[in-house]
Amino acid sequence: MRILLAEDEPHLCDQVKKLLNAEGRVVDIANNGTDAQYLGTTEPYDMIILDLGLPERDGISVLREWRNAGIKTPVLILTARDGWSERVDGLDAGADDYMTKPFHLPELAARVRAILRRQSGQLNPVIEMGNVMLDTRNGRVTVDDVPVDLTAQEIAVLTYLAHNAGRMIPRTELSEHIYEYDGDRDSNTIAVFINRLRKKLGPDLITTVRGRGYMIDPG
């Protein structure tokens, strides 16, 4: 799952990115409102974390522009401690949730997971796929209750397919959601990750739709 973090505090960006990367998320960073608006408009993010106090363009105007353009990507806004009016404005502008600075990183991760679950219609943080279980809280994967070691890219592929179970995902879409903005989006490597997942998790978990993409049966 791919997330845009629009935040201008370098230390906070580093902390949040490491936290979300550890859960199998891919994170792009925009440190000003202009870049945030552009990336949020042109890139297919699964959700956006948006600081309202961005330089160049404030978060509220960026959010309103996204919503006016019909962009429905879920947005979690970050506001200053005393910015209750900003919270109201942000929610009225189309935000899905908010957090007040300073905040605890585990709570941010939990809110991100909750938003992504709602977006995909998943109610449980643990996704069951036959004998395979994916815990979205920590990226832990088991087969018949036995832990399986996956790479970050393998977790990213599995997570996106699991959140979209029952829908055929084209290779190009999958590559757009597992690589960062400046990453090498070679859709041909997707087949390599799929083959590795089949070896580790079983050959029947992921179905190939010939010439089109991949799918996990919702069971």
From TrEMBL:
Residues 124-218 form the OmpR/PhoB-type domain. SUPFAM superfamilies: C-terminal effector domain of the bipartite response regulators, CheY-like. GO terms for cellular component: cytosol; protein-DNA complex. GO terms for molecular function: phosphorelay response regulator activity; transcription cis-regulatory region binding. CDD domains: REC_OmpR_EcPhoP-like, trans_reg_C. PANTHER family: REGULATOR OF RPOS, RESPONSE REGULATOR PROTEIN CARR. This is Transcriptional regulatory protein QseB. It comes from Ruegeria denitrificans.
